[in-house]
């Protein structure tokens, strides 16, 4: 076989250990002898028939060790290893000779390879019926579309059927399905025919057919009826759908449980039951640690055991004598116990539900001890109990009670001593469970609520907590590992969970806290996420690290690339796998014992990988595309050639990359660094050979030529970097003539680049203006086309032609567009906006997981001033950066594809990613807005306007991560909301801001003042109707319902309103009217909301705290607020530390539950509000309940009196990054800083002396007193407060 066939095997099934392969090398012909066949531990015995609640957090597959025989104990209570470690035991079957076919089946069943297991630990015990706990689950994993390298799988899983099979059904007409289900099945079948790698379509079709099968066997309309499962007309399609999905994906815990349950109803013959055993064995191996599947496996096996061992004639009526004999041999009692033993061992560290398996297993052993009274078996059971009680688990008390019963029955004389010793040894296990119980409860609550998002968060927090315990007393590798396993069972298609688990195992192995191999876990990870290139790359690296043979590592690579799922994941995922494979080949070629054949294999393998990647890119993006702007595979090849001494070939490889990579400054710098390394090795070799070298060192002319060529490229993405390197290199290594020429070339290029960037900025500005005039849907399409034009698949950025520099930026420049039309672009012609967030923002993706704001700001500092920067850790790491001007954002986009800490950045403009939202309910807060738009994509930020200068503003901006998400969110535009409100949701564009419309703006509204207090709306309408059609009349009223003496009248037309001004100076109800056209007034800096009126006797005076109109009182009084006094003082509270984005409706929503309100006065200019209740008792309750209330994240309310609130200043905050002098000038304005907490004061607070011990704080209410005003102290600040008894009586007063 030649090298090409070895590196690119056919799609057919690859044997685990191929025969010896001869490989032709241009240097030498050698014969490589592969290692022996790979031994794989196979899980023996079948599965069972029910479902148990699934668990939560990624799973790890531990490498099993040899299991003891069924009669041997599970684990040592002290060391955790097997007490009696024996080799795998074959199930010996003693039987009389029967028919040859039955003998063969019996031999097949008896030759089971038992998978070794890890040390076992104790389990929990429950007295409840097991059948009541086995509730089937139909929750399927939510699978993201393939986006990464495929998963390693066994060869027989990857290979498609070798024999022709009938085509899958795509028309379900005429079947037993209902018409609606037939339509759904047809759609799914067609989708699978077009896209066989669609996980969700596979799962949905299987669910649909499974449900039809269940309804066939158990008709919903006839509960007592029972259909024949074999007569289901779609049985073949159901089996074919499951087998087809199993060839591509790991189907998951729940689908496996349903498959086994269905087949258990269909399995009648001994052959079918053996086949079902194999499915059960595969299921528990693939879904490692699944309690649900182990119970399904064990219960079905127990049922089958009873079927073949019953002696009644009725039970044996349907079985032949041969079948009974073979069935009794295969499904023996020892096999049943062994399966439950294995299940207990593999699930022992699942703290939440491992007792469901362990209790069942220990019950079987106790049953055997009751029959045999074997001393060895009794000692073994005690040992198992000891080990179980030293393992943390939820049902520890149940296990201890069962152990107590066991000791009472068999070791009664030593009962007290045994129980005391056992309880002492279990202290550590109980403390570990107690520490984890709160997180287990939170996880269980999320699962019971069916909230997958909350469950994921609870699992992530749980894992993070476990990881922080590393090296501490409560740390347990087994518990953390089992937690990851639980997560993988619940979210099997999340590559990030699997990768975190893998890295955790690698880290723990490096710290010598575990000796487990990571390969089994990687095998399952790649089976569940075959599109994840990161997982496949880790699989290859781990295979090399654990010294697997070349054929085994090669098999992993072929399994990754031959399924087709890796290609679906994207080119980036394919590159990850090929990079890991090529680096492995390179390292292997230069090992101490490597041969010429290894060099040939490495060279051909790397070249083949480069060609395969280019073919994939050609299929996806077209001829000449650049699949890898970082040229990772080519760099590996160049490194290989350099190590092998082929310097000229490596140099030519670099030069061959110039057509595709020549616009990238990183390419030229790496080319230059490679040339310098070659030059350094040459100099070192000269010194070594000659022993003495002249004072003048040879000049690195090749390196100089590389930089010279790079500087002359006008399309370079970051020319400053290359120019700086060129000058520095010439200063260090070249003569003065070369240095001067370098300075000349750099100066010429600086001028060219300056002109080019100016032209690009003007073109981009003109294009943005054109987009702003388009409807939202067309604007989004135009933005998408712009991004695609700036980032072509080949990695080159399309740039406009060069024009002469513009002398004055305020003058128009005519730029020739690609379609021949002239586009006028001018800064002066654009509508100026204070802060153009929408056009000055970029989205930076593919950032390293650990990245800081400082590093990002340093990376983009040359582009312009950064206003704000927000890092997002979701679906990878990305950042949203807002610049001071959109020209800076356009410049920053030119860094797309650049390397940032080893990763190529993906940068796109943020234009179109923000929507303007208004007309939502007044009580809506950030949580309401996020919940409303969350289904459209990831929300980066929600911004409410400040009400400091206008309390009537009610809108917000919602910024999404991607433009497409914002565009999708506009579908809510016009949606009917509460209170007959129609939501407004449009793409935000400050340049397209529209002027307000309405009666006042249209000149149809008349303002009339000096109106008589008793005049009604009808009186005013009658007066003004003589001048035209009056649409409405509004007379503002105060808290008592009285007119404020002015009104607004709206006419049908502007002419009618102008005519009505004739009433100016007209006498009406004995008062002279002042009539004029309404004009825009200053923004209202406070808002008064009147809810109800109070009795006139309760009206307030104008003073503060009862000091009527005193100068001191007036000095502390802000405009337009009447200060409370008397009874009003007791029922009025002041709220402080209110964010200036909170409106009066939201304040009403949180204050009204405490009692009826009179009014709310919102004062955002003082970070507060005045709330007046109708009853002092309700005000007291509110002051207690609202103190410390978190009105927005990080902002807690304070309750006090009105003068205290009025002394607060307006909130100062900024969402811009403060640096240098600005940071010193605004030390307290860093992004909504919290107000300093002060002493809590209640409304109407009084104080009094307590025998010289200081003042006693009142409880917020004015004490009722029979004394007259004259008997009160003259100093109101020293009035006696109420006692606790008075306070309690006031609260209890009806």
UniProtKB/TrEMBL annotation:
Cited SUPFAM superfamilies: RNA-binding domain, RBD, TPR-like
Pfam families: RRM_1, RRM_occluded
InterPro entries: Euk_RNA-bind_prot, HAT, Nucleotide-bd_a/b_plait_sf, Prp24_RRM1, RBD_domain_sf, RRM_dom, RRM_occluded, TPR-like_helical_dom_sf
UniProt feature, compositional bias: Polar residues: 62-87, 1112-1123, 1227-1236, 1266-1282
Keyword RNA-binding: yes
Location in the cell: Nucleus
Listed GO CC annotations: U6 snRNP
Organism: Endocarpon pusillum (strain Z07020 / HMAS-L-300199) (Lichen-forming fungus)
Domain of life from the UniProt record: Eukaryota
Name of this protein: U4/U6 snRNA-associated-splicing factor PRP24
Biased composition (Low complexity): 1238-1248
Domain RRM as annotated: residue spans: 840-912, 913-990, 1004-1080, 1131-1204
Keywords: mRNA processing, mRNA splicing, Nucleus, Repeat, RNA-binding
Region (Disordered): 1-100, 112-131, 786-832, 1096-1128, 1210-1294
Skewed-composition ranges (Basic and acidic residues): 1210-1226
One record GO biological process: RNA splicing
CDD domains hit by this protein: RRM1_Prp24, RRM4_Prp24, RRM_SF
Function field: Functions as a recycling factor of the spliceosome, a machinery that forms on each precursor-messenger RNA (pre-mRNA) and catalyzes the removal of introns. Chaperones the re-annealing of U4 and U6 snRNAs (small nuclear RNAs) released from previous rounds of splicing, an initial step in reforming the U4/U6-U5 tri-snRNP (small nuclear ribonucleoprotein) that can reassemble into another spliceosome complex; this step involves binding U6 and facilitating the unwinding of the U6 internal stem loop, followed by base-pairing of U6 to U4.
Entry GO MF terms: mRNA binding
